[in-house]
């Protein structure tokens, strides 16, 4: 690792964060879609959905948080694509800086931006009646899972951000990620789904992550879901990081 890696990454992170803070509409837009979805499901469909819980917003929130992250990482891909097309990457290569610092700056910016969006969504959920029986340890576990999930999806976003041929292509990868929670336990219990759909829903990563977050937030028993969720997040992170770094090396070689 370049001895100047941390200093270079910090400087580049400051640059990326300034770009985000100058266009706060991206963070607001990222939060608005999940908030609108939460409002619609709680106040329009919530009365018709039987989840076996007293508060549908409590049931719904974990899935909405994952959708928020999936929406947010799309902007990481777009920012990377813009930098690639502007030639800034070539300019950075001519400077004596750590090359991996460029990617890490974008990844850390994604963490910061998504944190703000998640706080906004949780704040709206509290106004809507969300209440949690979680203690400090449980909230730290929730934060850890969301951090790992955000890192995994962000490194996944790096790949289309570097390799896409158009702006639409850079952002389109997030659509399946946003749709995946609908085929999970995020909105309704998987037991209510038809056989083949239920089989898929119960064995895809979002369900275990949602179940773990829901159990932690409500103070209920987590069981094995937390280990399955961590395994999915860690596995996706390793694979995404591996292919993202390969893609980056090919682009700058």
TrEMBL record:
Residues 25-251 form the ABC transmembrane type-2 domain. The chain crosses the membrane at residues 27-47, 59-81, 102-130, 136-158, 170-188, 226-248. GO terms for molecular function: ABC-type transporter activity. InterPro entries: ABC2_TM, ABC2_TM_bact-type, ABC_2_transport, Nod_factor_ABC_transporter. PROSITE patterns: ABC_TM2. It comes from the Bacteria. It is a multi-pass membrane protein. Its main location: membrane. It is found in: Cell membrane; Membrane. The keyword Transport applies. Keywords: Antibiotic resistance, Cell membrane, Membrane, Transmembrane, Transmembrane helix, Transport. GO terms for cellular component: ATP-binding cassette (ABC) transporter complex. One of its GO terms (biological process) is response to antibiotic. Belongs to the ABC-2 integral membrane protein family. This is Transport permease protein. It comes from Amycolatopsis keratiniphila.
